[in-house]
């Protein structure tokens, strides 16, 4: 539905490399609506919760350290098929396998420095939104909605 939400996070390398505006612009231009946005410097403990499903992977300690190495931009975008379209806009987990035109395919080289996170299902989006925005999100009506949706 039009109100599907996804959690998108610009990772510390995306922030350090000055790609925040470019990444947000892609989602805005596609038609997605920002319903929550903030900068945060997450703790390793918070990131262990965010990536709990990957706790047994050999790269997990390095992943948590990298993600805690600087501030991130936490965003919730809302719109039609936000989760699947958000994943398509990111590309593959490995930038090498990401199509040109995708965020990782245009801006990243290494799997361990892939600049942006996106929820992989509606269920994980809801969990991630609760984890990163316990204060809640901001619902609002965009004047473009009549031109984005039938
Ligand atoms: P995605 O971010 O595409 O959802 P994921 O959830 O499987 O991928 O993994 C989370 C992050 O962990 C990923 O963005 C980068 C890192 N990662 C995944 N596989 C990795 C690997 N084989 N080596 C190093 N880092 C990896
Ligand atoms: Mg994932």
Model description:
This protein is of the alpha+beta class and 150 residues long. The protein contains eight helices and four strands; from the N terminus they run βααβααβααβαα. It has helices spanning 12-16, 20-30, 44-50, 60-67, 82-90, 103-107, 122-132, 145-148, and strands at residues 5-10, 33-40, 72-78, 116-118. It has a four-stranded antiparallel beta sheet. The model has no long low-confidence stretch (mean pLDDT 98). The structure holds 2'-deoxyadenosine-5'-diphosphate and magnesium ion. 2'-deoxyadenosine-5'-diphosphate (DAT) is lined by residues 54, 59, 63, 93, 111-112, 114, 117, 120. The site of 2'-deoxyadenosine-5'-diphosphate has 9 residues, from loops.
Mean pLDDT: 98
What Rg is obtained from the alpha carbons, in whole angstroms? Answer: 15 Å
> Percent helix among the residues?
40-55%
Strand numbers in spatial order across the main sheet: 2-3-1-4
Number of strands: 4
Largest sheet: 4 strands, antiparallel
Q: Which ligands occur here?
A: 2'-deoxyadenosine-5'-diphosphate, magnesium ion
Q: State the distance separating the first and last CA atoms.
A: 12 Å
Shape: globular
Beta content: 15-25%
Order of helices and strands: EHHEHHEHHEHH
Catalytic activity: a 2'-deoxyribonucleoside 5'-diphosphate + ATP = a 2'-deoxyribonucleoside 5'-triphosphate + ADP
GO molecular function: ATP binding; nucleoside diphosphate kinase activity
EC number: 2.7.4.6
Protein name: Nucleoside diphosphate kinase
